[in-house]
Amino acid sequence: MNDTILMSAKPFVKWVGGKTQLLEDIKRSLPSDLLQNEDILYVEPFVGGGAVLFWILQQFPNIKKAVINDINPHLITTYKVIKYQPDKLIAQLETIQNEYIPLDEVGRKNYYLKKRDIYNLSSLSDVEVAALFIFLNRTCFNGLYRVNSKGKFNVPHGRYANPKICDKDTILADSKILQKVEILCGDFSETIIYATPNALFYFDPPYKPLSKTSSFNSYAKEEFDDSEQIRLRDFCHEISVCKAHFILSNSDVKGNDKNNNFFDDIYKAYTIKRVMATRMVNANSSKRGKLSELMISNITEYNK
Question: Bridge partners of 140?
Answer without folding.
Answer: 157
